[in-house]
């Protein structure tokens, strides 16, 4: 079985959990005799290609005649929206970073005859233009390669998946790692919503990372339940014995790791930290990540007078994440809306007890985790206090949590994804 897979990032060049999930899935599928060609807008040359071939979309020659290019473009006209979007940034943060007048139809049409398109492979100011060019390139790639299934990850690649399906006639699977409702709550951007809805409607099957996300896809996007399948994310075991596990401080450490945005609930973490510190002083709180709420969190920590007990570590990845978990005594994920949430699994893999919000997809599969409502800072503070002070509780979560997460492997999740593929093949 051959699969043409479209993503936007691939380790080690990632900005969040999406790239990590894509890598884990490709590795798992390869173990089940699925041959993969993974397309990214820009390959940097240091990607791990042991389990999948990596194709740089910028290296693909665009030699379609005007009629073919126009056909692709006509099918992508819904992308012509005057909007600035990055999957991991809020509109407010994006506006601070870039001032962009979106390049609509004419400018893009005039450039589609270039021999190659250039992609940054990032989430920069020309993001929407790159999404459109990526889709056109996807049609060319689909016409030049042999495969059985098309698999597109998240909204940035849905247009590419549609173009590839139109060019090849092969079945399309779209993978929903997050929706606009997760990113924006009820303040949904209608343009993003429309891109997501069209991608889901065009798909032959929709994979969601949790039942929570599946319900959103069915109820909010009007997608037929019969074609929506849940496959929970997983985590890969890692050998981290080379990374120090010693806490250099006398204090215990409680960690938040994720984007510092509305969706992740960083403000609830700060408020819970304040309440814990009223009862227990021998603890330090660490917020690792970046996002549009970061400066607001810094100000709030200062207002509460807990700056001496609070550290902001910035964006971490790779060994730095493992190093932080190895130092931590508890991990908290207070997400307001979390389609899944891989970071608790990564923490548990490092023998760290986790406290997660009930409003997360990962709460559907974890037994050995403390679960609280994201808004209930009293319950969150009690849970943190309990994990830090009751050894029996900590020992139980460490022992059984590690065993639990060791069974949540991508190798197992990929079996379900392969079954989705097989259901679409003649």
| Structural domains: how many | 2
Structural class: alpha/beta
CATH topology of the largest domain: Rossmann fold
Strand order of the largest sheet: 3-2-1-4-5-6-7
What's the SSE pattern? Answer: EHEEHHHHEHEHHEHEEHEHEHEHEEHHH
Structural shape:
elongated
**Shape-level CATH architecture of the largest domain:** 3-Layer(aba) Sandwich
Rg, Cα atoms, Å? 22 Å
Strand content: 5-15%
Return the average pLDDT rounded to an integer. Answer: 85
CATH 4th-level superfamily of the largest domain: Glycogen Phosphorylase B
Q: Spans with pLDDT under 50 lasting ≥5 residues?
A: 64-69, 76-114
CATH class of the largest domain: Alpha Beta
